[in-house]
Design a protein that fits this description.
Bound molecules: NADP nicotinamide-adenine-dinucleotide phosphate
Order of helices and strands: HEHEHEHEHEHEHH
Mean pLDDT: 84
Radius of gyration: 20 Å
Structural class: alpha/beta
Number of domains: 1
Helix content: 40-55%
Distance between the termini: 41 Å
Strand content: 5-15%
Shape: globular
Largest sheet: 6 strands, parallel
Number of strands: 6
Length: about 270
């Protein structure tokens, strides 16, 4: 188990424990709510040229941030995303982009410093850039390829944090885009992604413990149709197969998670009575 094909089926079939799927901000989290305003805040989003990072950047512009800066390697994506972010903004949010390879600490620091030179202290870091990494079973996957996922999902998060902290303004906030995949039973073939995202999760947990003044939130967005999941479009062509696996896996996965939850509760009950 764990081949690329098996991974695609398993991943496409991942169940959800929530009844409602959202594809845009719903009223509770609407960036237009005055109490959620980011007025006066300078925000940097890594991987903000595409997908989830771009959507986060748009939401910050809609909530009135002073500036939103996006960082990535492909300038064409950054240019088109900057336009979309500026067009979506409702106030006078400044939109900047910086081309940088986040796996390189000097490149990352130069990007953050040049943003701060233009806008001042940075208040919010969205550590969002990530890759899926090589798919393959632990027993035979190419280890150098697995380490490449660690390079982006772990090293780049370290680099972004270390570039951000010396430039951070008052009440600094870090939001890390992590993944539900680190909390559910193994998805065979996905070791590069899940192990590296779990390592990043721990890094932010330590950062929070060591720096109580930082507000750090780690989010798990669920499965979203972005470039990281381009293979899903392929799978959509085989609708019957997808639906079959969806129902089958949804039930078994939900049961597994529910069982784990119940055994955890039982354990807590036992320890309380013992
Ligand atoms: N989509 C999902 O279903 C899902 C689910 C859970 C979690 N996530 C997480 O969400 C985050 C965003 O992913 P996405 O789904 O929006 O996919 P995406 O569109 O592929 O976004 C990844 C971003 O990371 C940037 N990036 C990759 N390598 C980089 C590097 N070396 N230096 C700088 N930037 C780099 C990419 O830009 P360049 O290639 O131009 O550099 C791209 O903008 C990731 O952390 C992912 O793990 C996604």
């Amino acid at each position: 188990m764990g081949s690329e094909e098996e991974f695609k089926i398993e991943m496409g079939a991942s169940g959800s424990l929530t009844k409602i799927y959202h594809n845009k901000p719903y009223p509770t989290i609407s960036p237009f709510r005055p109490e959620l305003s980011s007025k006066g805040k300078n925000v940097v989003v890594t991987g903000g040229g595409t997908g989830i990072g771009k959507a986060i950047a748009i939401a910050f512009a809609q909530s009135g941030a002073a500036s939103v800066s996006i960082v990535g390697r492909r300038e064409d994506r950054l240019v088109s995303a900057s336009k979309a972010i500026a067009d979506a903004g409702v106030g006078d949010t400044r939109v900047l982009y910086r081309v940088a390879d986040l796996t390189d600490s000097s490149s990352t620091q130069a990007a953050f410093k040049s943003v701060a030179d233009e806008v001042g202290k940075i208040h919010v870091l969205i550590s969002n850039a990530g890759v899926l990494g090589k798919i393959g079973p632990v027993a035979s996957v190419n280890v150098d390829s697995v380490m490449k996922a660690f390079d982006l999902n772990v090293r780049s998060a370290f680099n972004a944090v270390q570039a951000f902290l010396p430039l951070a303004g008052n009440e600094p906030v870090i939001i890390s885009t992590n993944s539900a995949a680190i909390h559910i039973p193994p998805i065979p073939g996905a070791i590069a992604y899940t192990a590296s995202k779990l390592a990043a999760y721990k890094m932010f947990e330590y950062l929070a413990a060591e720096n109580p003044e930082l507000r750090i939130v780690q989010i798990q967005p669920g499965v979203v149709a972005t470039e990281i999941n381009e293979w899903m479009a392929e799978q959509d062509r085989d609708k019957d197969r997808r639906e079959y696996y969806y129902c089958h896996k949804k039930q078994s996965r939900t049961r597994t998670v529910a069982d784990q939850f119940v055994s955890q509760l039982n354990f807590q009950d036992n320890s309380a009575s013992g």
